[in-house]
Amino acid sequence: MDKENINLNKFDQLDCLITPGEIVRRSGIYEICHSDEPRVSVLLTVNTIFPFCRRCGELVRYKLLHAAPHISEDPDFQEDASAPDNPAQQTSDKRQFRPGEVVLIAGIYSVLHRDHRQSHQATLNDGETFPPCKVCDCDVRFELLSPASQRSATAGNKPTQ
Ligand SMILES: [Zn+2]
Ligand SMILES: [Zn+2]
To answer: Ligand nearest 37 Cα, by number?
Structure first.
């Protein structure tokens, strides 16, 4: 932020206009702007709801940092489940993930197809599995572009499971 940092007790939320309870219209990485805590980023997917914060409640605000469709919104990846088990041990400068591997870090990934399509971006949540492409199948690769700093969307909330 170029703005002069005012050292008050309150955290500035002026640039965060999305209120909790609204429906997420675009998947992507959002900044959670708490009223009493530093900001974190989180991955939210379309048609979910911006959660209330356990600590600052309805005072929490959100701001879209980087929009990208969730992988399940992409026609090349729809409706599939049978990902092959492919424990890849590929080490390059940038770790590439293969279909079948479990997503450990929620965030925006670059999706690299073999040759039928340009690379594009997609969001994936941790705990999901990298899906195979309908066209190039297991030759598709995923590279992490920007991780969300917080694991789950429930800002400051304890998972109730
Ligand atoms: Zn909060
Ligand atoms: Zn493909």
So the answer is: 1
Residue in 133, 145, 139, 74 with CA at minimum distance from that of residue 109: 145
* Side chain identity at residue 22, one-letter code: E
Which ligand is located closest to the Cα atom of residue 142?
2
| 115 Cα to the center of ligand 2, angstroms | 7
Tens of pLDDT, residue by residue over 30-49, are 999 999 999 999 999 999 99
Q: Could you state, in order of their start, the residue ranges of all structural domains in the chain?
A: 7-72, 91-147
pTM of the predicted structure, to 2 decimals: 0.73
Rounded average pLDDT over 105-113: 96
**Chain center to CA of 98:** 18
Distances in Å between the alpha carbon of 87 and those of 94, 110, 125? 17, 20, 19
Ligand 2 centre to CA of 74 (Å) is 11
